[in-house]
Amino acid sequence: MRAVCRPWHRPQTILQRMILTNSDIMPGDEDYQALLKRAREKIPQAASSGERFQIPDVELFYEGKTTILRNYMDIAEKLRRDPQHLLGYLLRECGTAGSLDGRRAIFKKKMAEKELMSKIQGYTDIYVLCTECHRPDTKLQKDGRTLVLMCEACGAHRPVMIIKATKAPEVKALEEGKIYELMIEDISRRGDGVAKVDKYIIYIPGTTKGVTAKVHIDKISGNTAFGRVVRE
Ligand SMILES: [Zn+2]
């Protein structure tokens, strides 16, 4: 038996479905049109022009001083970019060495989730998102010596600018007056414990090698910092 096709059986938008499931109003009714209009006015602009592009959250774990990005390939695939190209950018931006390992990426430095996410966002802004329609459905093409980002969604194209358009506020790895949980990696010649965070070397008196301690950072001078153990 052929299904009877009623006008309201046409494919519906989420909005239309919301209204239809929450009332007895039919699409042909005047009230329905008014409701739809009112509902449309309530949603923000971005939501009505399609779902917002989401970079997958980074899944990190640490082995000694290296950071392992477990879902690296998922991210590269979502961005639809060459994994080596993305990795090259991240290593340059983070100032470290690293490599691909199956579907994972390995960075030879301890990296915070926030830092890595902001670098991937930076890459996405430069090499993935269309500046016209903000969709990620783009591809990179060489035009002579210029790299061009072609948008498959709206047809716009633009040269890829390697300048940093939006510089994220720098997150300092270490700040005076704050408390950090630090691993004492070594003992200095003067007998102080030595810990390392990012570019900083922190001297902490009264600790032993191999322990993890809560350390209050008293002073930072260049790349050297001085802290004391906080006892609980
Ligand atoms: Zn576009």
Question: How does this model look, in words?
Answer:
Helices cover 26% and strands 28% of the residues. By secondary structure, the protein is of the alpha+beta class. The protein folds into 3 domains: 28 residues, no CATH class; 100 residues, Alpha-Beta Plaits, CATH 3.30.70.3150; 51 residues, Nucleic acid-binding proteins (OB fold (Dihydrolipoamide Acetyltransferase, E2P)), CATH 2.40.50.140. The chain starts with 13 loop residues before the first helix and ends with a strand. The N terminus is likely disordered. It binds zinc ion (ZN). Zinc ion binds next to loops.
In short:
By secondary structure, the protein is of the alpha+beta class. The chain is built from six helices and 13 strands. The longest helix is centred in the middle third of the chain and has 15 residues, at 113-127.
